[in-house]
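Sanity check record (used in CI):
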Amino acid sequence: MVWLARLKETLSVEQRDPELMRAQLQAFSRQIPLLYFILLVNTAAVAATHLDSAPAWLSLYLPALLGMLCLLRCVRWWRVRHRSLTAEKAVREMRHLTWLAALFGIAFSAWSLLLFPYGSAYQQSQVAFYMATTLVGSVFCLIHLRVPALLLLCIVILSFSVFLVFTRYPVFIAMAVDMTLVGVALAVVIQLYWRTFADAIHAQRELQASQHNTQRLSDDNYRLASIDSLTGLPNRRSFFASLRAMAEQTRATGGGFNVGLIDLDGFKQVNDIYGHASGDLVLQEVGTRLLSLGEGGLLFARLGGDEFGVLVCHKMSNDALVELGQRICDALSQPYQVADNVAELSGTIGWAAFPEAASTVTQVFERADAALYVGKENRRGKPVIFSTEHETRMRRLSLVTQELRHADLETELFLEFQPIYDLPTHRPIGLEALGRWHNARLGMVRPEEFIRIAERTELILGITDVLLRQALAEVAYWPADLYLSFNLSAVDISTSARARRLIDIVAASGVSPHRVTFEITETALTRDFEQAASALTMLKQAGCRVSLDDFGTGYSSLSYVHRLPFDAIKIDRSFVTDVDSNSASKKIIKSVIDLCRNLGLECVIEGLETPLQAEVVKALGAHAVQGYLFSLPMRASAVGTFLWAALAHRRETETQT
Ligand code: C2E
Ligand code: MG
Ligand code: MG
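Expected output for EAL domain-containing protein:
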């Protein structure tokens, strides 16, 4: 009984593996026409030779019926030959075929054995030959279906061999033995073939699984390589790939598209004030907001830092582009909830159209960047579309950059000095050094222009060195109670080594560090707050003073005052311009003066131009002032005369009192 159970188990292996079963049926399907061809031709041949010797029902009708069944099976095969089987259907089909093999085996064997007694010895040999060859042919056609093939083999061999043995003719008995041995050999071949086939299918399946796995991993890698992990948006690489693809398509089929570059205003402050984790949250929120604009034909990407890109996959009128840009800017300017704080940011966007504004991918990107640059300077939080005016600016930018790179800084740079006065006594207390650049090709270049360019290219380091040395050389000739106020850039305080270099220059000049005040604008602090703080502390420790320039023009000004070791604050001249008419400006100046008094800081009011402004700020408690009202910036050579005149004026007023 154990062997029976084992046989059952062996025979039911396929049933537990529908994939294998499907492969078996598929392979068998290709052999079906051949199987029925063998059956039909062999049966017809035997039937034909028995037409005269056997009754009609046996030599004609029965084989005709069996032939019909074969043809019907062929027709069915033709109709379903392309179907794909589900696992369940495959099991059903296999069972069905097993039954069919058994029935066909019984039917054909029965017919042959019934026919056997009607013929001569030759005809009987023909029937035996028919059974043997048809069986071998059929079994080979069924070789992929192990169970039906074995079943057919058993039925035919058993019935035929037993029948032949009972004839008691030695020739037929020998034939029966022979057939049985061939049957056993065939059974072994079927079993071996089935195992090889099953192994091949398993190996193929494993190969497919590993290919699938490799494909999935490569898809994952590709996805990771083209997605920004923080925001989930496509990254810079993916953005440029799409940009290139769109440019190609536009060149091939016409049409056009638009490139937008978005830069966040005030993001660095969020990082500095609330920390990098909050900065990350803001960037994620920006990604979500951009995606939620959810319009078809828009492709957003994070290009790096706080810079994002957008591709508008179709042409758009300028008005529509401005309107879309404004919607993007509006979405970005909504308050951001970071931990327990609310951060205010805005986004500026620069647009450039392809192929109208540019004919290459690099150019269209550069032009969107040029529009963004202009927007960041003049239209923060707004969309800007690239125009020829921006082109002119860009040309000027690259011209000035070129000239600055090749300039002989020692001879082309010089300084002008603007006095800082004590308003109540009307005495100069210090002079601010203002950098000037005269270039043979460009003429005089405004400091705002060349300093900004120098900052972008790090040429500022050389400029600061040259100007600081020049300024300190002048201070040596000034009365000891006058200080020098010297402007620094963000880059000058971006590393401790650079701060140390400034200290060394001051030390080498022989001027007492107490007479040197370094001015830093708020925007300079926003680059890397921690580094700036440590550089300022180094300058302070070396004995120099530090002052916050253009106060009120940046973000979160008060937080800087509290957190950095300033000695003075310079209120930006934009507050002074309307101080005599605008009560808000007046209040701001008043509160900053009070704040400075409370914190023990000096407060310098910049940009005084009219006596009325001077009167108003004096009434508000101002002491240190600076502006065209008192003196324009002057060449170093004029400072001596100016100081003599100021001294003479002081002596005169002292003798009068
Ligand atoms: P700042 O440090 O705020 O310098 C004051 C600017 O205001 C100077 O412009 C000065 O000429 C101008 N100014 C002074 N009084 C008045 C006034 O009553 N009315 C008006 N309308 N303007 C007045 P300047 O020299 O063109 O410098 C512009 C900016 O360039 C400076 O602003 C400073 O941020 C930067 N800068 C100048 N020289 C240097 C330098 O050597 N190094 C660095 N890093 N920056 C410099
Ligand atoms: Mg200044
Ligand atoms: Mg200033």
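DSSP finds 25 helices and 17 strands in the chain. If this sentence no longer matches the regenerated tokens, the check is flagged for review.
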